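Pilot study result, target chain (427 residues):
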Amino acid sequence: MARMIANPRKGLYSNDMSVTTVPLRRDLKVMGLVGSAHAASHFFHLILPPLFPILKAEFGVSYTALALLTTLFYAASGFAQTVAGFLVDHFGARRVLLSGLSVLSISVIGYGFTSEYWMLMVLSVCAGLGNSVFHPADLSILTSKVSAERLGRAYATHGLCGNLGWAVAPVFVGTIALYADWRTAAIAAGMVGLVIVAAFMIWGGELAEVEAETPTPALHPSGRRESIARNLQMLLTPTIISCFLYFAFLAASLIGIQAFGVTAIQQLYTIEFSTATAALTAFLIGAAAGVFAGGVLADRTDRHDLIAMGGVALAAVVLVSIGAQTMSATLVVPALALAGFLSGTTGPSRDMLVRKATPKGATGRIFGFVYSGLDLGSSLMPLLLGWIMDGGRADMVFYSCAAMLVITMATVTQVRQHGANRPEQAS
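Predicted structure:
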């Protein structure tokens, strides 16, 4: 029997004898499974930060030391993400995705059994390695399995689920820590990930069809060197580097709000901790709503660069207003919700920009490389903002995050300018 092959350009599964349209039900199943995995990834991003005040007291360390845990997590994820992309292209997305989610879940469970600060450091690195697989694996599955006319909404669902994972995490760990303790909260969080792994094993068999995009036969050493050179040349094009930088600066802004937004708001507006936490939740929920709206926009236009630039520019204006204290304390929550919505609308368009810049047969490698920019920005920004907060400049948290958003506009311009020169085939 002829093998069925995914055709991401036409949204069809075909062989040389037949052509079959992908049904909506199948697309929704793929979106749901992949979205749940992405939600788990983002959920784990915010397991430790809400617990920082508790961890500071228990382990006797500074906020800078606690920020280092976030840095280690994202640094490990960023360094490993490009490698994960190659593994996706070679071994298949489903296999790599489940392996990474298992490592991440077990590492988070391990947080609950630590007795020394250095143990948290080691586990944060392990968790980061597990986290590295999600973007190359998730987006390879969506690009290969979802029909082209629904791909913008598929990317939107992917981003929406990630933002919901962020929004749920502080409430989840905070509630359990309140009624039990932080260790129970960490263990329970890790178990959530293992439940999703089990769901993939039971219902995700169809995703196993997403295999290596480009089979890699054994090569002579000289052939291997040529293959490595071609891959490096592909990754280091102006378009791909611009995509990488876009993600780095965007992530720096978002992680800054997530990690220190609550503390900065409390200092600037003298509001209760519960209100500041509600403001962060509003930002994350707003971002989720923005992703949904952005998915509709992404499917209705090919000027994804304009959506991306407009969203980050307006979000930057709102963040500057918050930092400058141009509003009353009662407006902080809706203002952050608006900033989240505006930044969220850019998500699906950014994924479409990367897709346009990706050579055929290199989805895992390209998505893995450019999305490692997210981890680079996320690893460096917390340390900078921790230093800023130690200096008593809470307003600079919002100014710095706004500056990162403004810089992303220049990178989007470069992606648009060079995107037409995309190579058609990768080796």
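One observation from the pilot: Residues 1-20, 210-220, 423-427 have pLDDT under 50 and may be disordered. A full batch analysis is planned for the follow-on phase.
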